Amino acid sequence: MRFLLTTLFKLWGDGSACASVSSTRLTQFNDVVGSSSAPKIMFGFYEPDCDCPDSSAISDPSTGLAMWNEYLKPLAARGTTLGSPSMCTQKDESWLSEFSGKATGQELATWDVTSIHINKNSLAGAQADVEYYVAKYGKPVWVTEFACVDDVDGWAPCSDQGEINTFINEVVAFFQGNDSVVAYGPSNGLGLGNVWPMTDSSGALTATGQTYINAIKNL
Q1: Which architecture does CATH list for 9-217?
Q2: Residue 21 above 60 pLDDT?
Q3: For labelling, which of 66, 180, 186, 208 has a CA lying 20 to 30 Å from the CA of 86?
Q4: Residues pairing with 117 in the sheet
Q5: Cα separation of 85 and 103, whole Å?
């Protein structure tokens, strides 16, 4: 079952933008990769195409490429599976296209699996995001975050439990049945309203969290 995720690490940013977060995480990254064993899985920057504080804000893909070549690319020779940076702009991205050379015709960054974020409120929207990345980069995808959000004219987290339940059940079945999706998991981060989060302030499952558990139990 592809929803079962293994331990992975992600490099947040370049250590300068979002300095209060990324400099600390860069230090932590150096501590990890400097150890005797490299991580089994390492993902690139977290949403470098959007601003602080919720994303890592590496506005220039060439800066990201230099960081990738210095810190992440060498891990491949040590047996680490590399995941791409994840885009906050989903299938409307341009940052990853330039970073990878797809927009310039150059051979730049490569990886083993494309990390994607899906914030949509319909199965069709989720399918479009997956299909875009598979077609564009020719790699399997790892949905490292998904949530029910209306992103057509801004950002409006779903607030109707019935809509959320339908979305979860439909996208879980889609992810599980798609050979290009190697793993997936819901987002439990900021900006997702009061109904979507999987757990409450005490750590107990919400109705949404229980819906997700039921969906994967029924696979």
Answers
A1: Alpha-Beta Barrel (3.20)
A2: no
A3: 208
A4: 145
A5: 16
